[in-house]
Amino acid sequence: MSFVGSTLSLAVAESAAHHRNSAHEPGHSGLTEDKHFLRVRRDSIQPSDEEIALKTHTTDYGCETVDIPEPLPPDIDRGWAWVVLVAAFVSNLIAVGITRAVGVHYVTFKEEFRDSASLTSMLGAVMNSVSGLSGPLASVIANQLSCRVSVMAGGVIAAAGCIISAYATSIQYLLVTYGFLIGLGIGLVYTPTMVIAGQYFEYRRSLALGVATAGLSFGQFILPPILQLLTDYYTWRGSMFVISGFCLQFCVCGALMRPPIIPERPQKRALTQEEDLVKCQMSLRFLDLKVLKNAGFLLLVGAMFLRSMGLAIVNVHVNAYAVKQGGATEFQASTLVSIWGASSLFSCLLTGAAANDPKVVDPLVMLFVSLGYSALFAFSTPLLIGSYITQVLFAAGFGVYITCFVVLMAPMIVRLMDVASLSSAYGYAMLLDGIGFFIAPPVAGYLYDITQDYQYSFYIAGGCLLLGSIILLFIPLAARDVFRSRKNMSVG
């Protein structure tokens, strides 16, 4: 009733203003020129249960001033944001499950097409690299259209790649359909999924991104055994049709990702409304090249590139290392992936919760610690690979620390720039991520061919991770203004 009363009061105010203005027109007489100051306040509008304060804007009718309530703020940190977060979790779960299908199908592909191990292993390298390299394309689609369009398009492309792959006649055929098409589809899904999760949350952004990233870990933990059962029951060709059905669920999740209305921050507003509108329209059309001028961001993505190289080497060679030089059975080696996924799931949730309050734990410090300890585990692999128990210790420890970077990437981008730059910046980050995944495995494989020992490959992985952690130390120097203002805010 209070809202109805306010609306009626607003109508009366506008009517009185119109009548008073008309009194000054020729032909109108008998009305005094005394001006009445009529102001309809929003005090009569009671706040909602969420204690949301309505914004107002002022309209002048001659001498009258009327405050008109604006629409309710968008669903930031509440309401539909949780639906989007669930959709992001499910999308990431399916995406990582499909990429892990490469390991499930590797032996089958090698036996059926009788190609070399190096050529067959290129399927995983192509899929992972294309999914990363398509990050900028996903950002363009998300900026120009929406995250919803990018995710749904990725689902259709990945599903088509699975169906076409079911009729493959050679590994070269699969490199195009299985590696490129499915990788492209996943790339169009992953970047917008993380971006929109970051846009829908502000105060709980780190926690939300931790939950979204946990979908990757949960998918890595639960989907490989399911995909193996599908392959055993339906053969690999039949399983591709089932996987295509999984890919179509991206369309369902994408449909739930309606574009958010990001609230405006008055204290950061320096342009007029018209200038600001033109600037926003231009920046949302294509990738924002200005993010590449941010020195702090360049250091951050440089560290991410080195992290991707180290991760790719471990991801590709850890199972073979455990079997050939660690004495593990193939089944024991396959369980290391699930253990890695379970520890990553724990890490995602814990990291997101801890980083949700930067005053408690600085995200940059967490990034440094995560890469530093990941490097320590990589360097220690020759000591931990000797028994299955120590292999489990390695998989669990490495999974805990290496996953922190993915959770904290988006919050650090927002910290160095702003939410409006998140989509473009994340696209560039995924581009370097894909390059790292494409370069590192062949280099490590070539090193193994020369030495017939995997330990040197893991030393390279540890070196990449250690160098990435060192690069992070220079971010506060490159972004002094950001860290100085954040320090002043925490002191105040």
From TrEMBL:
Transmembrane feature ranges: 80-102, 122-142, 149-169, 175-195, 207-227, 239-257, 291-313, 333-352, 364-385, 391-414, 426-444, 456-479
InterPro entries from the UniProt entry: MFS (IPR011701), MFS_dom (IPR020846), MFS_trans_sf (IPR036259), Proton-linked_MCT (IPR050327)
Keyword Transmembrane helix: yes
Main subcellular localisation: membrane
Record membrane topology: Multi-pass membrane protein
Pfam families found in the cross-reference section: MFS_1
Domain named Major facilitator superfamily (MFS) profile: residues: 83-480
CDD domains, A to Z: MFS_MCT_SLC16
Compartments in which it is found: Membrane
Keyword Acyltransferase carried by entry: no
Highest taxon, organism lineage: Eukaryota
Keywords on record: Membrane, Transmembrane, Transmembrane helix
UniProt GO cellular component terms: membrane
GO molecular function: monocarboxylic acid transmembrane transporter activity
PANTHER family, A to Z: EG:103B4.3 PROTEIN-RELATED, MONOCARBOXYLATE TRANSPORTER
Name by which UniProt lists this protein: Monocarboxylate transporter 12
Species, as recorded: Lingula anatina
